[in-house]
Amino acid sequence: MMEGLTTKLAACDLAGPFVPAVPVGWGLPHRLALVGMCVLLTVAGCKKDSHGTPSTTPFEVDKVYERGPATVHVRLDKTKLTIADTVLLQFEATLQPGYKIEMPRVDKVLENFGIVDWDDLGEKLDAKNHVVTTYQYKLEPFLSGNYEIPAFTFKFHDANDPNATHELASEPVPVEVTSLLGDQRAKLVLEDIEGVVEMPKPAGRWWLWILVALVVAAVPAGWLLLRSRRSRQVVRVFKSAHEIAYLRLRALVAANLIEQGQIKEFYEQISGILRHYIEDRFALHAPDRTTEEFLSELRFMGTLAPADKQVLEEFLTHCDLVKFAKHEPTTEQIQRTFDLVKNFVERTKSEEHLVDVTDHVVAGPAAETEVA
Fold first, then answer.
1. Count: domains in the chain
2. What pTM did the predictor assign?
């Protein structure tokens, strides 16, 4: 009797409600109890909610765009943030079976924001067996002001005909970025240009006689020094590129430029440390190139991972904003900049790439510290 009941319950999705077979000899109470149990099982297990449970979303903006078999959601978790905050941008594309989606290149479109992190949340099937693809990006503003998250273009095509490509475009979303200074920003005062300084008058010619005497004395002294150097064998000294970079970072911390308010000088030095490390480690002449020239050559380097290239591009762009656009970084941004350089050196260090520092070692400890 229980086997017959189990079989009919398992088939309820296909056959709908049923009236079970009742064994001969059962009384009216037994029959009513069996019918009541079947009704409860039918309501609890055989009905399906076609609409599902509405899900709450943490996004302030959720714009929907549709074209043919494609539906795209463009979401932002906030439209007002401070210069130290980040904003989460999410794309969710839903396509009917048999179609493929091509997500837009966010880094090619953004102008006033940098990409701090991004994630591919993968693909899933919804209740209609449509493929749902989700990407999300964490963006960081460069400067305060009123900006727009730009429009993006989504391309999709039939899997059986990849040459026929269709496009679906979104709309810009306005975003307000406020300064951390708040009301104090209006109280900032630019110092006036200093007055004209007179050119110094030319000194007398007496110093020429001193120069001649020094040259005469230096000739035999130089000959003796050269002879003594030739008489001893110089042992070449090599250091790894990351050792030199760590020495320079320690010297930068010891200089206390941040405590002295010399923010621009700090960014000039830390940018130089990273550029010299890249030259010593990867044989790429970074110090004597502009940021644009360096980034252009960086894209064709096969020795660096794409993630490291992205980190270098964001770092150099941030340094240029401070050095040339008078951007005022926060304490957190300064610390993050220092940690970025330190972590990049740690992640890419190698004992196989050595730098000849013999001249600095022969000159003495002061010159060796200067390498740092």
1. 3
2. 0.38
